[in-house]
Amino acid sequence: MDKHKYSSAERLNSGFATRLRSLLDGPEDTKKLAAYLGCSPQAVSLFRSGTSFPKTENLIRIAEYFDCSIDYLVGLSDTKKVNESNKAVRQYTGLSEKAVDCLHSLNKEDREIVNRIIENELFPLIIKTHIRFAVNAIKNAIKHKIPLTGGKTITKVNGVSRMVLSPVDESEYYLSQASKGLASILSDIVKEHQKEG
User: Fold this and answer.
1) Does residue 170 form part of some domain?
2) Does one domain contain both 144 and 191?
3) Which one-letter DSSP state was computed for residue 69?
4) N or C, where is the chain less crowded by C-beta within 10 Å?
5) Which of 60, 183, 37 is nearest to 117 (CA)?
6) In 3-state terms, what secondary structure has residue 68?
7) What CATH number should be reported for the domain holding residue 45?
8) Are 19 and 72 in contact (CB under 8 A)?
9) 60 occurs within a structural domain
């Protein structure tokens, strides 16, 4: 990276410099890291300020020192350490790191509920129709600069009156349909629990 190409504020706020500052508590930590890397504390201070960027081998050693991933160290991820299981799940499902972490944080009972919801035959229909339509109503309105609110209007198409909803009303309609679908799934889960217990 050519240090003259970026302003001092851009260098100071780079992902790596920002993350390094958050990991180093003070001058003593700077000295310890410098000793670990075999460089001067001034060199580490230049990394902290974004004035200088470490060579690849030092970047790897800094990640080892802090027991974190390089993605975390340079600000590309907020997860400090790569969890190989999480990574495999993300690659298989296409879910984000945050979504996988959220699912993993659920307790056993809540995960069982999520499993039953996803396994239900209505679930894909709810996602593919109601939720997708709700999101698309808003996206299309923004794309075509249509006012998001405005209530219902009546238009005539080929002599037939049709009610046209505002994008927000349309989105709310589809989300209410999704809620009804989820309520139906949850009702099935309750019935299954009653049979089991």
Assistant:
1) yes
2) yes
3) -
4) C
5) 183
6) coil
7) 1.10.260.40
8) yes
9) yes
Q: What does each C-alpha distance from 96 to 80, 87, 134 come to in angstroms?
A: 15, 9, 21
Residue spans of alpha helices (H) in the chain: 8-12, 15-23, 27-37, 41-49, 56-66, 70-73, 84-93, 97-105, 108-119, 122-125, 132-143, 167-196
pLDDT digit string, tens, across residues 154-197:
666 677 766 677 888 888 888 999 999 999 999 988 888 888 86
- Nearest residue to 189 (alpha-carbon basis) of 123, 102, 128: 123
Whether 63 and 119 share a structural domain: no
Structural domain span for residue 162? 108-196
Residues 58 and 116 in one domain: no
Report if residue 89 sits inside a domain.
no
Q: Say yes or no: 63 and 128 in one domain.
A: no
If asked whether residues 116 and 192 sit together in one domain, one would say yes
Determine the Cα–Cα distance for residues 46 and 65; give it in Å rounded to an integer. Answer: 18
Residue with tokens 């190409």, as numbered in its chain: 5
Number of domains in the chain: 2
71 contacts 82 by C-beta, under 8 angstroms = yes
Q: Percentage of the chain surpassing pLDDT 90? A: 36
Amino acid at the residue 17:
A
Is 3 within 8 Å of 12 (Cβ atoms)? no
Residues 120 and 168 in one domain: yes
Is 188 inside any structural domain? Answer: yes
Rounded Cα–Cα distance for residues 61 and 37 (Å): 7
Entry field: residues in the chain: 197
CB 61 within 8 A of CB 37: yes
Residue 53 · residue 47 · CB < 8 Å: yes
